[in-house]
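2024-03-11 09:14:02 INFO worker-7 job=invfold-0412 stage=load source=structure_tokens
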């Protein structure tokens, strides 16, 4: 009672200050003092003991029914809360003299009182989440998990996340959820969480985006070519593979390979007079993207006096690309919110603009994403939050040795792993830790898989029965996650689920998922190689450093099967090469095959056969990442993640060269420089790395590698 009276006095003092009176004059209203739980618990006390002395202006007293009845019968009404203040002060002083820390007592009571509200509030939120999930059952993918004995640990981690209020804090942009070593780290994390509520922002931009796409369609645009790398292109590519070309809409193509044959192949497939080019780069300076832009801008400039009208920029505000778009008369420049990181940009302009231009159902995809966002909202308990649940499962399994997240490539969403691969690898692969995504791996028998696997399947309801039958033999010894979607537009919800999951996994693994500290090293090495080659072309590099860089002398293991005048061709058999790789492999390792040449169906098949051969022989997980695309996706994991990778770079001699306007080297030299730059960086980091240079006969070299003994 003494505490309540003194608290009310302080309340009246605050509401009498000039500062408050100024606010009140503008219409501000006080939050009234609340006396709660004022029934009398001790039968020796009067039944209105905590009501009569606490009556006063701007107060609220919550009474149970029996106390209301008692006060109505014999309670006395008077302004009493300001009475007896001297006695209240003496009571508090006496408590201190008796050795009772009144501040500590009230602090404990406050915490206990808050907790009594939190627990029922969380139960209420859980009930709402369950009902919301049931309401969205026909719109979002449902999940099933077999966790190979990790269920109890997952539940413990979910409880711990709820204990620290993870959901509310991530929505409050609390950077301390992840490792923060410097103030700049916190600022950087805070500036990368715009994806959390971006669906609402882009739903508001959707009408103008759809109108823009409809206008392009009306102009008989037949092709849209997305020039971008990594997070700037992969979501759109997955959507293209998921939905396919839409009748009456432009066909979407993605160019993210600097091999001259890739650039030529795209160009030869186009009617340049009916093509729009999307130049997508968050920084506005991405080397590959800007090289593509220069090349196609020159091609278009040969055909029209207004080449800028064929180009659309997607970038952050005030970047060099945004400036180029303004100066060059681009058809449009879509400036993305700068607080959305590249690999979290699927549901931003980077994903939505190309999808809309291709006629994909972006409005419904955003609606599904908004549904998933609501299920992952700030007040949803961790145990009911689908993104937090998935992230917790991935982190717990990774800690238990199941760090090879293998996306089963079947069904309507078979390409989803291409996007999830870059999200997982670039977000978690650092500080010697990380989750290793395995995408597009050919299926094998259960005996071929190591104990480090966790399998993920995402597909449609009509595909689920067949998938369950295929996954069942794996569940005996491996964790399996199965997500069943009602239709293809559920892809929007899965983009959001996995973004939240990876952010959660980063918190549990104590990794900052929003930086990429090891990516710049390969870029710097590439710049050095290119500078050396440019120097040779100008006659200023008499030492021939660049030429020696192609040969085997500076590399830990290199085989040149196709001599190109830059080094001795080493005649090793394919079996000798694979024997050398086998000697490097240990338990829990994976082999990353990194081809630096144009992608074709024939080469994809050959690389799949090579993966089969390596897995059958060595029992290890395998990945394939075409360069330079992988430098913007899994490259961070290769250099900063766990030391479990063995890297096999496959290079070629592009003939003939294809010049990049305004540059001293062409695309052929660029892609080879990128390969050598990453090779040197991996070597400098002590990674197990080998290179096979296939010369100009890429297909013949791949056949040698995949042939049996």
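2024-03-11 09:14:09 INFO worker-7 stage=emit residues=709
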């Amino acid at each position: 009672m003494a505490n309540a009276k003194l608290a009310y006095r302080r309340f009246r003092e605050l509401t009498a200050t000039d500062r408050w009176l100024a606010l009140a004059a503008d219409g501000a209203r006080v939050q009234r003092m609340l006396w709660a739980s004022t029934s009398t618990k001790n039968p020796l006390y009067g039944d209105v003991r905590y009501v009569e002395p606490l009556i006063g202006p701007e107060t609220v007293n919550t009474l149970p029914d029996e106390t209301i009845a008692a006060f109505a019968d014999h309670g006395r009404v008077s302004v009493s809360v300001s009475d007896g203040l001297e006695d209240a002060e003496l009571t508090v002083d006496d408590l201190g003299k008796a050795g009772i820390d009144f501040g500590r007592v009230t602090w404990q009571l406050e915490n206990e009182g808050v907790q009594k509200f939190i627990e029922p509030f969380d139960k209420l939120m859980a009930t709402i989440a369950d009902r919301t999930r049931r309401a969205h059952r026909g719109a979002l993918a449902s999940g099933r998990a077999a966790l190979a004995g990790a269920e109890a640990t997952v539940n413990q981690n979910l409880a711990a996340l709820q204990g620290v209020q993870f959901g509310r804090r991530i929505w409050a942009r609390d950077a301390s959820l992840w490792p923060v070593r410097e103030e700049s780290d916190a600022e950087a994390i805070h500036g990368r969480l715009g994806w959390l509520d971006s669906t609402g922002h882009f739903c508001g931009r959707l009408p103008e985006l759809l109108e823009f796409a409809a206008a392009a369609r009306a102009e008989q645009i037949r092709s849209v070519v997305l020039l971008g790398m990594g997070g700037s292109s992969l979501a759109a590519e997955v959507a293209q593979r998921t939905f396919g070309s839409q009748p009456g809409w432009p066909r979407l193509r993605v160019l993210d390979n600097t091999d001259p044959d890739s650039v030529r192949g795209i160009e030869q497939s186009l009617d340049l007079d009916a093509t729009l080019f999307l130049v997508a780069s968050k920084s506005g300076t991405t080397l590959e993207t800007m090289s593509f832009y220069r090349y196609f801008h020159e091609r278009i400039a040969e055909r029209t006096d207004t080449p800028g009208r064929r180009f659309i920029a997607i970038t952050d505000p005030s970047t060099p690309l945004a400036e180029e778009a303004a100066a060059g008369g681009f058809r449009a420049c879509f400036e993305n919110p700068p607080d959305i990181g590249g690999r979290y940009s699927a549901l931003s302009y980077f994903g939505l603009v190309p999808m809309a231009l291709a006629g994909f159902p972006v409005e419904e995809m955003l609606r599904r994403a908004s549904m998933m966002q609501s299920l992952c909202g700030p007040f949803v308990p961790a145990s009911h939050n689908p993104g937090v649940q998935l992230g917790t499962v991935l982190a717990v399994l990774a800690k238990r040795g199941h760090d090879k997240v293998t996306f089963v490539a079947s069904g309507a969403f078979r390409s989803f792993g291409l996007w999830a691969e870059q999200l997982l690898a670039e977000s978690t692969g650092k500080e010697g830790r990380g989750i290793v995504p395995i995408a597009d791996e050919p299926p094998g028998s259960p005996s071929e898989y190591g104990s480090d696997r966790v399998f993920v399947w995402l597909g449609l309801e009509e595909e689920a029965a067949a998938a369950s039958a295929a996954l069942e033999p794996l569940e005996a010894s491996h964790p399996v996650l199965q997500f069943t979607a009602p239709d293809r537009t559920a892809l929007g919800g899965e983009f959001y689920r996995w973004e939240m999951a990876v952010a959660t996994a980063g918190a549990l693994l104590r990794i900052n998922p929003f930086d990429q500290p090891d990516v710049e090293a390969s870029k710097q090495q590439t710049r050095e190689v290119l500078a050396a080659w440019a120097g040779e072309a100008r006659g200023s590099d008499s030492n021939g450093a660049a030429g020696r860089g192609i040969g085997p002398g500076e590399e830990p293991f290199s085989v040149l099967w196709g001599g190109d005048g830059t080094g001795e061709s080493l005649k090793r058999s394919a079996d000798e090469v694979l024997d050398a790789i086998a000697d490097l492999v240990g338990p829990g390792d994976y082999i990353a095959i990194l081809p630096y040449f144009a992608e074709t169906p024939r080469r994809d098949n050959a690389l799949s056969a090579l993966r089969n051969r390596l897995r059958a022989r060595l029992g290890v997980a395998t990945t394939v990442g075409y360069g330079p695309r992988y430098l913007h996706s899994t490259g961070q994991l290769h250099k900063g993640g766990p030391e479990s990778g063995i890297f096999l770079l496959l290079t070629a001699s592009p003939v003939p060269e294809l010049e990049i306007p305004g540059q001293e080297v062409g695309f052929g030299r660029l892609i080879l420089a990128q390969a050598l730059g990453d090779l040197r960086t991996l070597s400098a980091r002590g990674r197990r790395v080998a290179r096979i240079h296939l010369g100009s006969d890429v297909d013949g070299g791949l056949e040698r590698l995949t042939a049996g003994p």
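2024-03-11 09:14:09 INFO worker-7 stage=report msg="Residues 540-557, 561-570 have pLDDT under 50 and may be disordered."
2024-03-11 09:14:10 INFO worker-7 job finished
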